[in-house]
Amino acid sequence: VQLVESGGGSVQPGGSLKLSCAISGYSSSSYCMGWVRQAPGQEREGVAGIYTGAPRTYYADSVKGRATISVDKDKNILYLQMHSLKPEDTAMYYCVADCEFRYDHFDFDVGFRGQGTQVTVS
Fold it and tell me: Cα 108 to the chain's mean position, in Å?
């Protein structure tokens, strides 16, 4: 399984970014995918998730209303659209495939993760 993130960069507060994750070697009739982020000195945070089997989506409180997760099943690309970006959104963003969705809860600590794309808001 290979995950390649792109779309990160430096933006001013209030700006927007659309992150992409090209996924290869992974397919399932119902799957769990998501985005996590980690800033220096901070714990990894689950940002958004999607489970097609239910279907369900998840957004961390810190991004709720400012982020949209989506997937292009034909192209096997996962997206995270973020707007109204804040300095506290600055982090390395990682795509996760084959996370676990159970009892209406997303677990992003399992599955496959990409190398990340840096988002800097300043």
Answer: 10
Query: In the structure encoding, which two tokens stand for residue 69, read together?
Result: 């997760």
46, 10, 36, 31: which is closest to 98 by C-alpha?
31
Residues 14 and 83: their CA atoms lie apart, in Å, by 7
Tokens at residue 63, please? 């991004």
Query: What does the block give as tokens for 121?
Result: 């808001």
Which residue ranges in the chain fall short of pLDDT 70?
A: 29
| 84-103 confidence digits (pLDDT tens) | 999 999 999 999 999 999 88
Output the CA angle 98-115-20, nearest 5 degrees. Answer: 70
b/e sequence 73-106, b meaning 16+ C-beta within 10 Å: eeeebbbbbbeebeeebbbbbbbbbbbebeeeeb
CA distance 119 to 95: 13
